[in-house]
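Request: When convenient, would you put together a sequence paired with its structure tokens?
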Amino acid sequence: MHGTSNSALAERLRQVADLFSSRESAAKAAGVSYPQLNRYLNGTTKIPLIVAIRLAEPHAISIDWIANGSGDMTAGSHHSKQDQATQRVLQVTKDIELLLARDGLSIPRSKRNDLVRTIVDMATEHTDDDADGINLERYSDVIRLVAKG
């Protein structure tokens, strides 16, 4: 990304990375290692455009804002209900993978996809699981049972 100061760009990237549940989940979303993400966020290494896009998309962040700081952070990023549902599924998938990794467990992809759809459907019925995120702690015992069973 050209035409902007590395420190200003790194600061905006840190703001975007802070929207994730952890820097590890931000690195995973970006498709880079945790140490590499830190190099980008510290401004010691230039960030490739694809990495910035991968960080921006899950939270509907404006690439123009990341690149040069102009406009609103989320300007022009209104998503349809289908886009929001897709984002929920992607976030739940990532969160389940992190929970399983933390516990040293795994679930075959087909089983995991069914589990994600079930959790998203169940969470949609609960008022304390809103569009900003699904509280996976409510479902963590079920996730572990599926992984072990």
